[in-house]
Amino acid sequence: MKKAILSALFLFTVTVTSAQIYTAKKGATNISFFSAAPLEDIEAVNKDASIVLKASTGDMQIRIPIQNFKFKNALMEEHFNENYLETEKKVEVNGVATYPNRYCEFKGKINEKVDYAKEGETKVTVTGKLDLHGVSKDVTLSGTITKEGNDYKLYCKFKIKVADYNIKVPSMYVKNIAEEVDVTFVTTLEQYKKPTQ
Hints:
Blueprint: H1 2-10, E1 21-35, E2 42-46, E3 50-54, E4 59-65, E5 70-71, H2 74-84, E6 91-93, E7 96-98, E8 103-110, E9 120-132, E10 135-148, E11 151-161, E12 180-191
Antiparallel strand pairs: 1-2, 1-3, 1-12, 2-5, 3-4, 4-8, 6-7, 8-9, 9-10, 10-11, 11-12
């Protein structure tokens, strides 16, 4: 987890002090999705995202390991990874194997000027690119930032159309999967602290 956070931090091109950087508090992230369909509702939860917020500019990056979504039963989880998100699909690039579908990534920016010293909830929109299943889409998402002491709680709820991300549903499962999936994202961020050596 520390390696993932450090990797995300290095993606910022401007050097900033650690006081301006916030990362996900351990155990305080919950990403869930819900798909309502005629035969069976499908839902899953993931608690393992890496999140970095640069408060001075509003830049935000989120990286979610797809294989860490947990389902009610193992068969649903297997179908999700093998048939829909294809997390084990390997691509050779210059002789090096990569797995492009293993992560969902968002890189974007908060559009509003946020007063991070102000207690309570602030409504925000975030615009950026959402990369999922090898497809990159421009998105604008609505949510809230709530200051709770020294921490910040982020909340966002949005829909994803599976067809937009080239997620193909096998014909035998077409009644099991909705065309749109509801996604809920909740996390608490704390000030980034450099690891002690």
